[in-house]
Backbone:
């Protein structure tokens, strides 16, 4: 009996085809925990909470012009869950080395595209390393999936999640399928026409607003295509595919919020400015000239409704190019420039434009996507993600999660990925760097800390001076 196949969406297929030996398209997550956990309890948690997402039981069937999801007839959890232990008195450096090794290795395309490693003997506790291919879902939804394995307390009540019933529609002939698409198109056109007429009745200026929006989208597309390539720096080198991973000690979120209030900005503005300062310090440490035009980073922008059910996977995000003013030395002036750049991006349609481009590339020939990817990746020096996490501590299989970290993959010729993740009143910083790029990931993590402290001191000193002037 032939296995049922589900067509892959064009956007997911675009991410599938981005996979290269230099940049495997894997989202990587690490959860450090305060104690060892039972492997049997971990398996039960995965079976009840992780495998209820049917996509994790399916492998990819790539037919060149089309790609499909197909149930793996030989699926076995033991093919994806591995148990290892770090040697001796393992510290953070030992775990970072292991994560670097695994993050440099591609997934097995003969099986569902994910792997989970349970790591024992880490600082008196344990850790979990999860790698999932980007074609399954975007970082936002996969972080939510991973966190769904956790609980608010150490003693959860694990209940069997009923298997979702899926029905396979009857197979249509070519003529039936063509007629069906035609009917759908006519119905969609009628609906859009009625919606447009109703909008004009409710708001006579609606056609002008629609034309203005269309013009803005076209303008953002033009700006994206005409944006200059990134300046030649040590951050843009040919890649070897060997990754080096590091993460910093967490920052107290209250301190970040206090800095944001003092400067009249958002937490996100503060963190993006902190990343800018870290790159400034990297250039200074390597005695490398800072580009006068700044640097750009590709920032994923979520297009998924926040109330969308967690079982809806797939990729629903666009990319925006954020200019980081690394040439501006003064922390406050640098913050103001970052804030202005962020506000300009929020008013643009760049995320929707890049999402539409991914959808278009996923439907076209592979060579078109490769050329477009090369063009776009030359316009950024790094990928920078900022994902808000839970405000309270979580537990997994009875152990408290003490520090979570996540990295999204880089694409094309980009060899640096920086990640920011908030968790239980802290802010976590992480980085992954291709070995060919002359940058020490541990040093860059120290620069993150130094950059924030410099910005915070300048912000609070400025606020105190303003209060003293008012009092005088």
Residues:
């Amino acid at each position: 009996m032939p296995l049922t196949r589900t067509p892959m969406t064009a956007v997911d297929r675009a991410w599938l085809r981005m996979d290269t030996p230099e940049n495997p398209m894997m989202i990587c997550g690490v959860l450090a925990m305060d104690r060892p956990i039972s492997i049997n309890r971990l398996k039960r948690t995965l079976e009840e909470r992780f495998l209820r997402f049917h996509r994790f039981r399916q492998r990819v069937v790539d037919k060149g012009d089309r790609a499909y999801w197909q149930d793996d007839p030989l699926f076995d959890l033991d093919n994806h869950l591995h148990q290892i232990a770090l040697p001796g008195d393992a510290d953070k450096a030992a775990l970072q080395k292991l994560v670097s090794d695994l993050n440099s290795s591609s997934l097995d395309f003969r099986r569902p595209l994910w792997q989970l490693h349970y790591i024992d003997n880490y600082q008196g506790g344990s850790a979990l390393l999860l790698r999932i291919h980007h074609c399954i879902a975007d970082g936002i939804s996969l972080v939510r999936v991973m966190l769904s394995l956790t609980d608010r307390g150490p003693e959860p009540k694990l209940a069997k999640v009923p298997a979702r019933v899926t029905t396979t529609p009857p197979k249509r002939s070519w003529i039936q399928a063509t007629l069906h698409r035609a009917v759908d198109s006519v119905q969609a056109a009628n609906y859009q026409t009625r919606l447009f007429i109703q909008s004009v009745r409710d708001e006579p200026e609606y056609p002008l607003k629609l034309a203005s929006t269309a013009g803005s989208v076209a303008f953002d597309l033009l700006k994206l295509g005409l944006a200059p390539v990134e300046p030649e720096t040590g951050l843009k080198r040919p890649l070897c595919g060997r990754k080096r991973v590091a993460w910093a000690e967490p920052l107290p979120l209250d301190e970040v919020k206090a800095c944001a209030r003092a400067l009249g900005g958002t937490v996100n503005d503060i963190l993006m400015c902190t990343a800018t300062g870290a790159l400034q310090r990297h250039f200074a440490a390597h005695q490398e000239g800072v580009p006068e035009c700044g640097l750009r980073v590709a920032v994923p922008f979520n297009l998924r409704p926040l109330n969308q059910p967690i079982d809806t996977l797939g990729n629903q995000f666009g990319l925006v190019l954020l200019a980081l003013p690394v040439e501006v030395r003064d922390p406050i002036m640098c913050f103001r420039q970052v804030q202005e750049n962020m506000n300009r991006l929020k008013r643009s349609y760049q995320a929707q434009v890049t999402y539409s481009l991914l959808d278009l590339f996923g439907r076209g020939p592979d060579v078109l996507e490769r050329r477009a990817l090369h063009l776009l990746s030359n316009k950024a020096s790094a990928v920078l993600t900022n994902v808000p996490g839970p405000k309270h501590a979580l537990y997994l299989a009875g152990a408290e999660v003490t520090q979570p970290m996540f990295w999204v993959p880089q694409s094309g010729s980009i060899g640096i990925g920086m990640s920011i993740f908030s968790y239980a009143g802290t802010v976590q910083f992480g980085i992954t760097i291709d070995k060919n790029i002359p940058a020490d990931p541990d040093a860059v993590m120290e620069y993150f800390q130094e950059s924030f402290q410099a910005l915070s001191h300048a912000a609070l000193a400025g606020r105190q001076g303003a209060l003293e002037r008012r009092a005088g």
